[in-house]
Amino acid sequence: MRHGLANKKLNRTSEHRKALLKNMLNSLIKYEQIKTTLPKAKFLKPQADKIITLGKKETLQTTKMLVSKLQDIKSANKVKKTLSKRYQNRKGGYTRIIKAGFRYGDNAPMAIIEFVDRDVEAKRVDKPKKEASKTEEKKQATA
Prior knowledge:
This protein is α+β, with helices and mostly antiparallel strands. It has a single domain (about 15-140), classed as CATH 3.90.1030.10. It has 5 helices and 3 strands; from the N terminus they run H-E-H-H-H-E-E-H. Strand 2 and strand 3 form a beta hairpin. About 20% of the residues are buried.
């Protein structure tokens, strides 16, 4: 019987699974869209929704719980300031899973998990702009 088994183990130890969840949550909050395998996306979706719901409550305790779960102050601030305001009138269902075919190497089912009303520019947080780098190269060549 399958009583009391709440979530998938993903073939990992509990420490590895907790670290995987924390890193995927931080990446999802930072970029607002990530591509991963379908079982990982299904494992991440309820946790991400709980984080947003926690961020919507304006208390010191919830802020401390966010920082404790995410282990990243920047992600916790983004949840409290940006995402909680964006989903103020929504009662749930902050994320969606879109199936994205199969991975080439091992034929694993892939999926894209993203926030429902996501910011398209958030995907380019770390990537430098191509136009800016080309103008810098021209300046260095003329100098």
